[in-house]
Write a structure and sequence with these properties.
heterodimer; A: 528 residues; Immunoglobulin-like; 6-stranded mixed beta sheet; 5-stranded antiparallel beta sheet; 32% helix; elongated; B: Rossmann fold; 6-stranded parallel beta sheet; 39% helix; Glycosyltransferase_grp1 (chain B); Glycosyltransferase involved in cell wall bisynthesis (chain B)
């Protein structure tokens, strides 16, 4: 529905969508005189003004003023509250609901109850300018007031389902995605994403890349997963010579139960040429996540960006952001672990066998099974040969032994408890081979504070695909044995040695955050 | 004998199928116990049965003779140190656990399995467990020889990095797991019986310190002990030498064949008889020695394979028995047979050979793997009077009563495992 005062003052109302008994969102656009101040307001007649509690504006390229020199067009998203009179609680019940756009002494009014306003917002989002849908998705992630939109229509993605269905879903890394040579997205357990759009042409300095993230959360009792727009704690995008790269991190409060992410992108890489992309990032540890920022591609006609000055500058900027975001928390976790009382082996009723990789470990555990069973109620096994070892305990039938994702979940569950005995199988075997008794070979249990630190380190600085690698690194950090670096470099071949040095130094700082002794050992000058 | 413990001997093989030193020792112990009026039970692995099991169904455990049983080990992993088929293992454990015995005496853990051992111990907590170590398989992946794989250099101690140079395809983790598994298993025995102080010391250095360790020489058997000594009323020719055994790469026959022409140059009367192999077998193993064998002419003879029951008598037919092994050996039956026959020995100066042949009493030593030094010893041995002097002092072997008493002491001495 369009209401026009003249050629430079017009308003278009695309939809008015109830959000709750007291809130609604109005979608539309406003054409206003260029350079002149304007005001927007919504009122419910004698019931009073409707406060606008959230507003955002976006481009509407499909709507052109008659003379662009004299007028501009902006899309808007306005969340407003109804007056407190219960009789006027819902927009459709309100006796009067008027949208007012004022520019100087000119005014244009639109009745938000007008039956010409479309009543199928999902269809509207799918068929109108995609900037409207993208803007609303971003706002839905940012504002809890809009959250019901993602749950409406009783289908995945709520109101956004029809629109998203029109965007092909890319996964991980895909070549030849017009107009790109390649699109790639990675995500880390910390809720970070890196998006790299590799172009076939130079990317100008004023290119932009915006993102909206959708989180996948397990549904109750194995039902349909919940797909919810999640707020970004930060987003940083930068044009590189032939690449548009972005780094984002979701709000930490949305990490709990997060199983996956989907990134919806709005990119403008050249002039007014803009497009939308939808991509499911591949899960990655932190090293490949950061390395991707400095990777060129095989198909781009232009010289590769890998290791270029701008790419390194972007990497440095992202590293600085990461350290600002994660180091304080990791320092606090390390401090808490340092002051937590030691636990005794007897207090641990769960044993986690880490690095159960060699099938011959099953022989060892066949022999020592009674000793293990005496010391725990539950066994978690991680590694390539975990199933073979679990079979040993399954045949004996004394204690449950779980492997794979169940073992990882068991470790996460144990983070709230005190005392889990984490045993590196290779070190355990080496200790037994050296003549140690079971108690000495099994070592000390991890405490609740250690487990919290582990999960924190894994999320922010994990170097391997799974939790076992982080656990092995934490145990090494805690051993503080001479001859062992507190943080061995990540075994990942990065774009250049400069990239590798930057990433490894950064990760070392995170791993040793709050641990001055380890930090000192890491930063000791090399001999010679 | 009513109070004597009843014993089950578990062996990695049976003399009906192969005649290695370990299975011969196990069977001779079985026979000695039986002749002593006790009622032992022998349960031995059977490679014949195992091969058969690969083609047709066969019971995992079968009766071989009165109180003698054989089992197949087709269900074991390739290295024969653990079972891949838990059901076959369980059948064997159930069978062994049901036997009316007080002591399980294992000869070897190879073809028995660490998993079977601990399961049997769990099934029979009332029994005592002893094991005789016939070589060093737990310590060394190279057939338990402690000889480097890239050369024939001797190895004196196990260490993971050193082992990695011999087995570059292995991992440090696997070495650790292997040792931890074997050490944890062997440490549970009440008694470990070593046929030589040499092998006892190797296992001690490796870390096997918990069980009672006894050094008890293998028993040569009632038949050999019944023979008169010296075996031959007429002294053998001092210049005649004999090699006894299968000519494997580690037995040092090549060293002896290289020493022969050197010795012949000093004393053309010297002769050498190889008992245990034909010329073709030796040439196949050491092709480069074919001209040496040809040149030796009538000074060298190949007597082919022999029955172990005839070994002592054959020992008496030569003036000297030579044992030139390039590996350590443990407690070679050849040395026992020669000593039983009253035939002095020339042996390499290492390991179980040096221990079992007291220099100046039972015979002479030569520098291991040195043909020159072996030739020196042979020439000296062939001088008039030398052989008679050594033949007079060479010591006899352990008697049955000594052997069984030592075993009973070992069974009783071991504390709780």
């Amino acid at each position: 529905m369009i209401i026009a005062a003249d050629e430079s003052l017009q308003v278009g109302i695309d939809a008015v969508i109830p959000l709750s008994p007291r809130h609604a969102v109005a979608l539309g656009w406003a054409m206003t005189p260029r350079g002149e101040g304007t005001e927007l307001s919504i009122a419910a007649g004698r019931a009073g003004d409707c406060p606008i509690e959230h507003s955002s504006f976006h481009a509407r390229p499909a709507i052109q003023p008659a003379d662009p020199r004299h007028a501009v067009v902006n899309g808007f998203i306005l969340v407003f509250a109804m007056p407190e009179d219960p009789a006027d609680a819902m927009p459709e019940d309100a006796a009067e609901l008027v949208f007012t756009l004022q520019a100087g002494d000119r005014v244009v009014r639109a009745d938000l109850r007008d039956p010409r306003i479309p009543r199928d917002p999902a269809r509207l989002l799918a068929e109108t300018d995609w900037q409207v849908a993208f803007g609303l998705l971003k706002d839905t992630a940012a504002s809890p007031l809009l959250a019901p939109l993602a749950a409406q229509a009783d289908r995945a993605y709520g109101l956004f389902g029809d629109w998203l269905a029109r965007l092909p879903l890319l996964r991980g890394r895909q070549e030849k995605v017009a107009p790109l040579a390649e699109a790639e997205a990675l995500s880390a357990p910390s809720g970070e994403v890196v998006v790299v759009l590799r172009a076939t042409h130079p990317v100008p300095p004023d290119a932009t890349l915006e993102s909206a993230l959708i989180g996948y959360y397990a549904g109750p009792d194995g039902g349909m997963p919940a797909l919810l727009p999640v707020p970004l704690a930060e987003w940083h995008a930068a044009p590189l010579p032939t690449i548009m790269a972005g780094y984002g991190r979701i709000d930490a409060r949305w990490l709990d139960g997060l199983q996956g992410l989907e990134v919806v992108l709005q990119a403008r890489l050249r002039g007014e040429e803009a497009f939308c992309l939808r991509i499911q990032p591949r899960p990655a540890a932190v090293p490949p996540l950061l390395d991707a920022l400095c990777r060129g591609n095989r198909l781009a006609a232009m010289p590769l960006d890998a290791g270029s000055g701008p790419a390194i500058a972007l990497l440095r900027a992202v590293i600085a952001r990461r350290e600002a975001a994660f180091a304080p928390g990791l320092e606090a976790l390390a401090a808490k672990a340092a002051t937590s009382p030691a636990s005794t082996p007897a207090s641990a009723r769960i044993i986690l066998m880490l690095g159960t990789d060699d099938p011959s470990a099953a022989r060892l555990f066949h022999v020592v099974a009674p000793e293990i069973e005496r010391r725990c109620d539950r066994l978690l096994l991680m590694g390539d040969a975990a199933d073979a070892v679990a079979q040993v305990f399954a045949r004996r039938g004394r204690i449950p032994a779980v492997t794979g994702p169940a073992a990882v979940q068991g470790l996460r569950d144990a983070a709230g408890e005190d005392g889990i005995l984490v045993v590196d199988v290779a070190r355990y075997a080496a200790a037994l081979a050296a003549g140690a008794g079971q108690d000495d070979a099994l070592g000390q249990p991890l405490r609740r504070a250690d487990l919290a630190r582990l999960l924190g380190l894994h999320a922010a600085a994990g170097c391997g695909a799974g939790l076992p690698d982080s656990l092995a690194r934490l145990l090494r950090l805690m051993r503080a044995e001479p001859g062992e670096l507190p943080f061995p470099p990540a075994p990942y071949a990065m774009a250049t040695t400069e990239v590798a040095d930057l990433v490894n130094d950064h990760l070392a700082r995170l791993w040793t955050a709050g641990d001055p002794a380890a930090r000192a050992r890491m930063e000791a000058p090399p001999h010679g | 004998m009513a109070d004597a413990p009843r014993i089950c001997i578990v062996s990695h093989s049976h003399p009906d199928f192969s005649k290695g030193g370990g299975e011969m020792a196990a069977h001779r112990q079985f026979t000695a116990l039986r002749h002593a009026g006790r009622r032992p039970i022998l349960v031995a692995a059977s490679d014949v049965g195992t091969r058969y099991a690969a083609l047709r169904p066969i019971e995992p455990v079968m009766r071989q003779a009165e109180d003698e049983y054989i089992y197949t080990f087709a269900g074991m992993a390739d290295d024969r140190l653990a079972w891949e088929d838990p059901h076959q293992r369980r059948v064997l454990v159930d069978f062994l656990a049901s036997l009316p015995v007080d002591v399980f005496h294992l000869h070897h853990y190879w073809r028995v399995g660490t998993d079977l051992i601990v399961d049997l111990m769990a099934a029979r907590p009332d029994a005592r467990f002893a094991i005789t170590m016939h070589e060093m398989l737990a310590i060394c992946l190279h057939y338990g020889q402690m000889v480097r794989t890239q050369s024939r250099e001797l190895c004196r101690a196990e260490s993971p990095m050193r082992c990695l140079t011999c087995f570059p395809d292995q991992t440090l983790e696997r070495f650790a797991i292997r040792k931890a598994t074997l050490l944890s298993t062997l440490s549970r025995f009440h008694a470990v019986i070593h046929p030589s102080a040499f092998i006892r010391d190797r296992y001690l250095a490796w870390g096997l310190t918990r069980p009672h360790a006894a050094v008890i020489e293998n028993y040569l058997g009632d038949e050999a002990l019944a023979l008169p000594r010296p075996i031959s009323p007429v002294p053998a020719d001092a210049a005649s030498f004999g090699f006894f055994g299968s000519p494997t790469l580690f037995k040092g026959l090549d060293v002896l064949l290289r020493a022969l022409p050197l010795a012949l140059r000093a004393n053309p009367a010297i002769t050498l008889t190889v008992f245990g192999a034909e010329r073709e077998e030796v040439v196949k193993l050491f092709p480069g020695l074919d001209p040496v064998i040809t040149d030796a002419g009538r000074a060298l003879a190949f007597a082919g394979r022999y029955d172990p029951a005839d070994a002592v008598a054959l020992m008496g037919s030569v003036g000297w028995a030579i044992m030139p092994s390039i590996w350590w050996e443990n407690s070679p039956v050849v040395i026992q047979e020669a000593r039983r026959a009253g035939t002095p020995l020339i042996v390499a100066d290492i390991g179980g050979m040096a221990e079992k042949v007291a220099e100046g009493i039972d015979g002479m030593h030569f520098k291991r793997a040195s043909p020159v030094d072996l030739a020196r010893a042979m020439v000296e041995a062939a001088t008039p009077g030398t052989r008679d002097r050594y033949a007079a002092s060479v010591r006899d072997v352990i008697t049955r009563d000594e052997f069984l008493a030592a075993l009973d002491d070992a069974y009783a001495a071991g504390g709780a495992a």
